[in-house]
Amino acid sequence: MTADGIVVHRDCYTSHTQALRLYILGLVDGLPSPIRQECPLVVLRAYVDDTNKGNEPVFALGGLVAPVEKWLLFSDAWDAKLREHRSIAYFKASEAAGLSGQFWGWSAAERDRKVAELIPIINDCAISYLGCAVVKEDWHDVFHGKMAKTMDTPVYFSYMRIITILLGAMYYRADLSGVAEFIFDEENQTIYREILNFWLEAKKEYPRRFRKRMGNDPVMRDDKKVVPLQAADMIAWTLGKLSSPPPYPDFAISVAEQLSIGGIGEVWDKSNLGVFSAGVSAHNANNLFEYETGKQRSVRLKELLGPRE
Question: Residue 135 and residue 150: Cα distance in Å, rounded?
Answer without folding.
Answer: 18
